[in-house]
Amino acid sequence: MKKTVILARSFARAAKDPLRRLEDAGIMVEIKKNLDPENEIVVSDLIGDAEGVLVGMDRVGEVVLSRCPNLKVVSKHGVGVDNIDLKAAQKYGVVVANAPGTNSVSVAEMAFTLILTLARQLPYFFEQVKKKDWGATRFGLELEGKIIGIVGFGRIGKTVGQFANAFGMKVLFFDPFISTDVSSYQKVTLEQLFREADFITLHAPLSDETREMVNDKLLALMKKEAYLVNTARGELINEDALYRSLKENRIAGAALDVFTHEPPFESPLFSLPNVIATPHISSHTREANLKMGNIAAENIIRVFAGQEPLYRVV
Prior knowledge:
- By secondary structure, this protein is an alpha/beta fold.
- The protein contains 11 helices and 12 strands.
- The strands form 2 sheets. Strands 8-7-6-9-10-11-12 form a 7-stranded parallel sheet, with helices on both faces. Strands 2-1-3-4-5 form a 5-stranded parallel sheet.
- Strand 3 (52-55), helix 3 (62-67) and strand 4 (73-76) form a beta-alpha-beta unit.
- The longest helix has 19 residues, at 286-304.
- The protein is elongated and about 65 Å long.
- The relative contact order is 0.16.
């Protein structure tokens, strides 16, 4: 009987169907808690002699693959595979698969929720009411007529664009893989997007090209009244540069669901009143969890059966 270790913390949380899918396929499942997902020694010790592993943000690289010779498949409980060394996986003959499209709506809805939260300054008003202060001393913003800049125009970015259209916003997007305007959305350079947008939301994958793409130079282009939202990957932003911009009120605020190091409890960003932080929950809806879990499980089942996974990366 082949064994799979589950490290993804949110696997089968909303419903047990994905777990039953693995068990019904005759796969031995071990669910293990990983308290140090970036430590490959810890990850490899948890995987042990298993043939499959289902990961969240757990790092799988040369160290893990060399220490786990039985490993045949790494299934990502999600879309981004930046925590998996794809070249090393190819070297060791390990299949890597993911679950694209399963959390697109959930992440897009979260991004837009954060945009609305920033626009209406809801955390401030929550605190005022808790203090029994009923006198509103601030004004929020209407989204109608504002410019939204979407960095990365894949499934999630396009869905955010649809929401923005419904609110009467002008949509600019930057995506090097799209060569022309899309429908009513205008393709612009990254610099133009940062100069013109009132709200900027990040939906780009993490790569060598996008790592810390949001730096001092780009942040300096933003309007003083503009806001930045990140529900993609924390590493897209140089957090020191963002801290300086927010601390000096060179931009209005930021809403961050992801950080370079998680949990980010020591981050100086938490000390700023113009920062909203959530604990990497953009994909945490019942619907996304079920879809993601079923596909991640099915990828493993198919590889164990000698078949192609639903969504092979390498």
